[in-house]
Amino acid sequence: MFDFDTVIDRKNTFSLKYDFNESRGYSPDTLPFWIADMDFKTAPCITETLAKAVAHGIFGYSDADDSYFEAVHHWFRQNFRWEVKQDWLVKTSGVVPALHAAVRAFTKPDDAVLIQPPVYQCFASAIETTGRRVVKSPLIRRGKKYSMNDFDDIERKIVENNVKLSLLCSPQNPTGRVWTREELSQYSAICRRHHVRIVVDEIHCDFTYPGYTHTAFGTLGEEDAMNAVICTAPTKTFNISGLQDANIWIPNPAMREAFRKELIASGAIHLNLMGLIAGRAAYLGGKPWLDALKEYLLRNLNYVRSFLNANLPYIKLVEPEGTYLLWLDFRYYGLTDAALELKLRNDAHLWVNMGNIFGSEGSGYVRLNIACPRSTLEKGMNRLYEAFKSQKPSSNPYFL
Ligand SMILES: Cc1ncc(COP(=O)(O)O)c(C=O)c1O
């Protein structure tokens, strides 16, 4: 019903993924598997609505109205049994601006903010660029899976550093974990006990693989929700990141006011009209497209797993529970991050995210975006094979 196989030329479309190879030091023929957008056309219900808006021809200042809220409300009720309220909603142009605004709103310069690396790199930059301090309670890899650090460690880090705020990625980028209700509840309880507010980034919530369910933080309990800023967006799900539309839910009125004040202070008060139009259309009519997309992504995941097992057994897939980002463990080769990056860039002609951008805990890993047509993914995996087929595993793996 939907075509995810056709390779669409994205060159000369202002695409960060496709139009900046040479200016960022990659050869022109490099294949990109880094930034988290997709090489698929968005849902037809979205492009059709946008086409009507373009034909209308007036693109003035805009705001979300009741019809926008109702579409989003419908989505969260239908997919996550989460009843959002209209007055909780603060609109922003993205989740990243919301992370920054929340850090400024709920902490002072030099205050400590907790993160669990390896984690989306904008968490650390939202803390550091605003003059706050990063405190880490790293995730722990147990066998094939990551989990949160011991809850004792989390609590000790909070107390010892007088942590004021924590940033939580749920589902987790880059490890692909989908946190269970119990994990989220325990984490939330520790934070509440020490008056640590939580910013939860749920931008990947629509991408879970069969057998895993995303728990909306807002469904944990009232006390949890009253301590949280919950960041959601239709952009990742529907491949409309360039249209900049995010929905930030803040049930606690005092926190909402403080957050809003920061947005106003930074001048970020206007929204993208096309983002609103696309977001509403997505949440009203995009479910069949998303379901088909998720089936396609699952087949891509299965393909990569089989390919690695058969051809590159020293590259280990960390089995994802959600997201379209794969976390690949290259540590058996014993290469430094710099050497690994050079090999991927110069020998394989692949542009991926090196794991250490998500924190030093990601050293030796690579993040690979599989949201592309199968033929593109096959090309990428074959290039990986050619570059690594003669690479011997280290007898003394550097990172193990
Ligand atoms: C966890 C996470 N949060 C936020 C973003 C980006 O959010 P936005 O484009 O809404 O600023 C990304 C993009 O990859 C992400 O992975």
Q: How would you characterize the overall build of this protein?
A:
There is one protein chain. Helix content is 39%, strand content 14%. It is an alpha/beta fold and 400 residues long. It folds into 2 domains: 22-42 and 288-388, Aspartate Aminotransferase, domain 1 (Alpha-Beta Complex); 46-285, Aspartate Aminotransferase, domain 2 (3-Layer(aba) Sandwich). The strands form 4 sheets. Strands 2-10-9-8-7-3-4 form a 7-stranded mixed sheet, sandwiched between helices. A hairpin with a 6-residue loop joins strand 11 (316-318) and strand 12 (325-329). Pyridoxal-5'-phosphate (PLP) binds at residues 36, 94-96, 120, 169, 173, 201, 203, 233, 235, 241, 246.
Low confidence ranges: none
Small-molecule components bound: pyridoxal-5'-phosphate
* Rg of Cα set: 21 Å
Number of helices, counting only DSSP H or I runs of 4 residues or more: 13
How many β-strands, per DSSP?
A: 15
Whole-number total of structural domains = 2
Report the principal-axis shape: globular
CATH topology category name of the largest domain: Aspartate Aminotransferase, domain 2
Q: Estimate the helix proportion, in percent.
A: 25-40%
Mean pLDDT: 97
Give the distance, in angstroms, between the N- and C-terminal Cα atoms: 46 Å
- Per CATH, the superfamily of the largest domain is Type I PLP-dependent aspartate aminotransferase-like (Major domain)
Largest sheet: 7 strands, mixed
Structural class: alpha/beta
Order of helices and strands: EHHEHEHEEEHEHEHEHEHHHEEHEEEH
Name of the CATH architecture of the largest domain: 3-Layer(aba) Sandwich
State the CATH class of the largest domain: Alpha Beta
Strand arrangement in the largest pleated sheet: 2-10-9-8-7-3-4
Strand content: 5-15%
